[in-house]
UniProtKB/TrEMBL annotation:
Domain called HTH deoR-type: residue spans: 2-57
Name of this chain's protein: Predicted DNA-binding transcriptional regulator YafY, contains an HTH and WYL domains
Gene Ontology MF annotations: DNA binding; DNA-binding transcription factor activity
PANTHER family per the UniProt record, alphabetical: PROTEIN PAFC, PTHR34580
Biological source species: Eubacterium callanderi
Cross-referenced Gene3D superfamilies: Winged helix-like DNA-binding domain superfamily/Winged helix DNA-binding domain (1.10.10.10)
Pfam entry (one): HTH_11
Length: 310
């Protein structure tokens, strides 16, 4: 008995008032006897399918059980299709395919074109332009491990390039700022940790299972903390990197300086990450103030130059 055929039959019954056994058999290229067995299985699953004998008879889901399609507006259905389509493109699985099929079954024929148009107005593509191609298969491994409560082992590159081997109980996949993370309980640290998938290597799902513990969701909103840590520095940039600088601050922070340059009030925290951002702009960016940040930029640039001179 194929699960996908049962799901498809349920979608058809939800969509149609009544349909005969022979029509279903022709549709799925099976015998009417097989269809009757499928209907029995659907009934056993708790979905009340009523059978009407004779001419014009057939199978139908009891009206009281059916969902009124009008409960979803065009905007509701468009939003559901948009979200499920974007997620199914990155995290594949039968449950997402079936969820999409269910949502589409609620679309009345006379509104299908309008709903599809609205659903396509925003395209969310979570796949990477380039970079670590392990992300997609790792997502699949982690999703299966979460469903089956199985331990994961992997190599991990922590801060400053430190290499460690971890065993973790997987609890949640997190997409934050275009990067995927695993929130899991780390046996090495004996605590919950947020692991970035791009820093993992040799991810393996183990045969050993675990008993899920009380799960702690990771804190993901650091706006207040960052606001307290950030200061504004003044940089002068060439217009050719303006598009990249706009990823970190607003257009209102730009003041024209001649025909080809801007003076920018740039949010900055004195750490490796933010110095790396400034250095990534190359000779198209100059730190003007404060003086100690300017001096540190000069020191780092000289250190880089020494590598090439050597």
């Amino acid at each position: 008995m194929k699960i996908d055929r049962l799901v498809s039959i349920m979608m058809i019954l939800l969509d149609k008032k009544r349909i005969g056994a022979q029509a279903l058999a022709n549709m799925f290229e099976v015998s009417p006897r097989t269809i009757y067995r499928d209907i029995d299985a659907i009934n056993m699953a708790g979905i009340p399918v009523h059978s009407t004998p004779g001419a014009g008879g057939g199978f139908e889901i009891m009206p009281a059980y059916k969902i009124d399609k009008k409960v979803f507006s065009a905007h509701d259905l468009s939003a559901l299709l948009m979200g499920l389509s974007s997620l199914s493109g990155m995290v594949r699985g039968d449950e997402l395919v079936h969820a999409l099929a269910k949502v589409r079954s609620f679309i009345p024929a006379d509104r299908a074109k309008d709903i599809e148009l609205k659903a396509n107005q925003i395209n969310i593509d979570l796949s990477q332009w380039m970079g670590n191609r392990n992300i997609q298969p790792y997502l699949e491994i982690i999703k299966t491990a979460m469903q089956e409560s199985r331990l994961l082992t992997f190599g991990y590159i922590a801060h400053h390039g430190n290499k460690t081997t971890r065993t973790a109980e997987p609890y949640q996949l997190v997409l934050k700022g275009s990067h995927w993370y695993l929130q899991g309980y780390c046996h090495k640290r004996e605590d919950y940790r947020l692991f970035r998938l791009s820093r993992m290597s040799n991810l393996q799902m183990q045969e050993k299972t675990f008993t899920p513990r009380e799960y702690q969701k990771p804190p993901l909103d650091f706006d207040n903390i960052l606001t307290n840590l950030q200061t504004k520095i003044k940089i002068r940039i060439h217009k050719s990197v303006m598009d990249r600088v706009l990823d970190f601050c607003a257009y209102e922070d730009f003041l024209p300086d001649g025909d080809a340059h801007y003076i920018v009030s740039f949010p900055f925290i004195e750490n490796e990450y933010h110095y790396g951002i400034l250095l990534s702009f190359g000779d198209k960016c100059e730190c003007l103030e404060p003086l100690h940040v300017r001096a540190e930029m000069k020191r780092r640039i000289q250190k880089i130059a020494m590598i090439y001179e050597g």
